[in-house]
Amino acid sequence: LKRYITPNASCQKIDAILEALAQNTRVEALYIQNFDRGFFDEQMDKLIEVLKLKRIWALNIGEISEVSLDAWYRLLDALPHSAVTHMYATEQFLRGTDLKKLMRDAIR
Description:
The chain is built from 4 helices and 3 strands, in the order H-E-H-E-H-E-H. It is mainly α.
């Protein structure tokens, strides 16, 4: 996405992208990284719904700092119900938790 929108993209732009991904059947790898100004818990929940469609198998969701730990745990719970087999999430926002290990286990 970084090729098409800037890192300071708004929530509305991220929402539009996630809504388009819900309809798209060709995108299999999603690089939705470093969108701090437009990616919050609501966007994480929309992403989770997209992932549950089982079309995306590779996910880079690094440097997303404005998402709560609860939302990260919701993503963790959704991973077994997705097709994600390859994933990157920045550890610095997950410090003090076992989320990284649990996510790794969930996609295997």
